[in-house]
Amino acid sequence: METIRQILGLLSYFILPAIIVGFPLYGLIKKVPVFEAFVEGAKDGFSVAVKIIPYLVAILFAIGMFRASGAMDFMADVLRPVLALVGFPSEVLPMAIVRPLTGSGSAGIVVDMINQFGEDSIFVKMAATMFGSTETTFYVVAVYFGAVNIKKTRHAVPAGLIADFSAMLIAVWVVRLLFG
Fold first, then answer.
1. Nearest Cα to 175, choosing from 92, 105, 102, 113?
2. What is the pLDDT of residue 146?
3. Helices 34-68 and 71-85 sit at what angle, rounded to 10 degrees?
4. Residue 105 burial by CB count (10 A; 0-12/13-18/19+): exposed, middle or buried?
5. Is 31 left (phi over 0), alpha (psi -120 to 50) or beta?
6. Rounded to an integer, what distance in angstroms lies between the CA atom of residue 126 and that of residue 180?
């Protein structure tokens, strides 16, 4: 097991440089005008960024109001008995609520938890694992679907929330398994 960790640690040093060099090199081999394609993609990215600003502002405003009103703390207190049945600590519930909405808001939750519980806390480890294993489902739907004018999301939201919910439960269980 230790040998595998050492090999993966060594390989991790080369992954980013390989990507940075590999993609342009592949483009040159395929005779793609790499710089021109990069500039065109950057232009498209800027126009998408301008389109998504209203959605982003609305989501961040709603999250700020939800946290500032005390509704998140109230919800954690009310759901504590239910969460205990599946072994989900109510201390990480704010992360579970905010993560599907916004990445920066959930990063702020992790920082708040570090300040409250300490960086070595099991709750912080659970929240950090949730941060890395879940998606900002509502953000993705609102921003990216809105950017390309998709009005009917069909099964995207339920599928994303089921994946998020599953990943959050598994994150809690795996952290408990590894860190007790």
1. 92
2. 79
3. 90
4. buried
5. left
6. 11
Q: What is the DSSP string of 78-113?
A: HHHHHHHHTT--GGGHHHHHHTTT-HHHHHHHHHHH
* Secondary structure element (H or E) that encloses residue 51, with its range: helix 34-68
Residue 164 per-residue DSSP state? H
Q: What are phi and psi of 13, to 5 degrees?
A: -70, -25
pLDDT for 1 equals: 67
pLDDT tens digits, the chain, 180 residues: what are they?
678 878 888 888 898 899 999 989 999 999 999 889 888 888 888 887 787 777 777 777 877 788 789 888 888 889 889 999 989 998 999 899 889 988 888 888 898 899 999 999 999 999 999 999 999 998 888 878 877 888 888 898 999 999 999 999 999 999 998 887
Q: How far apart are CA 164 and CA 60, in angstroms?
A: 19
- Under 8 Å between Cβ of 164 and 134: yes
Give, in degrees to the nearest 5, the angle at Cα 135 between 101 and 114: 75
